[in-house]
Amino acid sequence: MEKFTKLTGVAAPLPVVNIDTDMIIPKDYLKTIKRTGLGKGLFAEARYNEDGSENADFVLNKPAYRSAQIIVAGDNFGCGSSREHAPWALLDFGIRCVISTSFADIFYNNCFKNGILPIVVSPEDLEKLLDDADRGSNAILTVDLEAQEITGPDGGTLHFDIDPARRHILLEGLDDIASTMKNDAAIATFEAKNHAARPWL
Question: Does domain 6-173 have CATH number 3.40.50.1700?
Answer without folding.
Answer: no
